TrEMBL record:
Recorded GO MF terms: ATP binding; ATPase-coupled transmembrane transporter activity
Transmembrane spans: 151-169
Source organism of the structure: Oppiella nova
GO cellular component, one term: membrane
Signal peptide: none
Keywords in alphabetical order: ATP-binding, Membrane, Nucleotide-binding, Transmembrane, Transmembrane helix
Keyword Protein biosynthesis: no
Keyword Nucleotide-binding annotated: yes
Major location category of this protein: membrane
Domain of life: Eukaryota
Similarity comment: family membership: Belongs to the ABC transporter superfamily. ABCC family. Conjugate transporter (TC 3.A.1.208) subfamily.
Protein name (database record): Uncharacterized protein
Membrane topology: Multi-pass membrane protein
Length: 180
């Protein structure tokens, strides 16, 4: 998306597919530096990036909960941690050092996966549908429907003829120039 050099970028949680170190690097170098003169709409569940946003829209259950700068949202009393812990993450505070409170986000799905792997149980339901393979040829009426959907036999013939002429002339020009 960055290579297109547009004025507005809509980014739908691109940082969730990478680890936190790479996500921080992408956010700092790409979004904050490279796109600093552009309008960027970043949809994300990762609240560590919201401090650098100029405007923040907080959604809960599809409805707008709050809109403003980071400081305005903190002053309004929005509890970001509860919003995240309600949805995808458990938030834990590590108080190993009295001066530091480090927030650690643990993915609920990872915890559930570990719990399921530790249990010895038989699979109850099959979640993957059976696949069927059919052998044979495609009937002629299917091709006829494609031709009619593509504009009819006349238009398809003109497009096919034009394409053949184009490639013939393209090849002929190379041959002519090599002889010349």
């Amino acid at each position: 998306a960055l290579y297109s050099d547009e004025d507005i970028y809509l980014l739908d949680d691109p940082l969730s597919a990478v680890d936190s170190e790479v996500a921080n690097h992408i956010f700092d170098k790409c979004i904050c530096d490279y796109l600093k003169t552009k309008t960027v709409v970043l949809v994300t569940h990762q609240i560590q990036f919201i401090q650098k946003a100029t405007k923040i829209l907080v959604l809960k259950e599809g409805r707008s909960l709050a809109f403003g700068t980071y400081e305005e949202l903190l002053d309004s009393g929005i509890d970001f941690m509860s919003l995240i812990s309600d949805n995808k993450y458990n938030v834990k505070q590590d108080i190993s050092n009295e001066n530091t409170n480090e927030i650690v986000m643990v993915d609920k799905m990872a915890e559930n996966t570990l719990a399921v792997q530790n249990e010895e149980s038989e699979p109850k339901d099959q979640f993957i549908a059976d696949e069927y393979r059919h052998k044979g040829s495609v009937e002629g009426k299917v091709y006829w429907h494609y031709i009619r959907a593509g504009g009819g036999p006349l238009l398809i013939s003109v497009i096919l003829f034009t394409t053949i002429i184009y490639y013939f002339l393209d090849t002929y020009i190379d041959i002519y120039l090599s002889i010349w």
